[in-house]
Write a structure and sequence with these properties.
Number of strands: 2
Strand content: 5-15%
Order of helices and strands: HHHHHHEEH
Strand order of the largest sheet: 1-2
Structural class: mainly alpha
Shape: flat
Helix content: 55-70%
Length: about 140
């Protein structure tokens, strides 16, 4: 549902364009009649409140709740949370993540700075891969 909400927000961005107002309203109405209606039926069938379905997920909070991580030492849980924050930082182009998780090479000097080449550090890549693989294995076990 969060993805659907973001898609609707993307479409709504064009509502301020006079020639597009009616098209935007029509597109949103169609999405509500199809996708959103389907999500509402699913929520009702699962006995989940609609407000719960629409709320944003706080991944860090959810990682703290994962049961299979509970018996492990705090460092394991902390590694999952730190890895999520690093990957999220990469995804959102946050400078701290780019610098902390990358090997940086100065390629050229320019007025007021440098041209830099960044490549993901091997250990950051391996840690992200291990955390992701572990989550996938646990998910597959539950599905099975």
């Amino acid at each position: 549902m969060r993805d659907e909400i973001e898609q609707q927000n993307h479409i709504k961005a064009f509502a301020s364009v006079p020639d597009a107002t009616d098209l935007v309203a029509e597109a949103i109405a169609q999405r509500k009649a199809r996708s959103e209606a389907s999500y509402r039926r699913d929520a009702q069938a699962l006995n989940v409140k609609w407000d719960t379905v629409r709320q944003k997920v706080n991944v860090v909070d959810e990682l703290r709740k994962i049961r299979f991580l509970q018996p492990h030492e705090p460092g394991v849980r902390a590694t999952f949370i730190a890895t999520w924050r690093m990957l999220s930082g990469f995804e959102h182009g946050l400078g701290w993540a780019m610098l902390r998780g990358s090997n940086a090479k100065r390629r050229a000097e320019i007025p007021g700075g440098h041209v830099m080449e960044l490549s993901m550090k091997d250990d950051a890549f391996v840690t992200a891969g291990k955390c992701t693989a572990w989550l996938m294995l646990e998910a597959a076990q539950r599905l099975e």
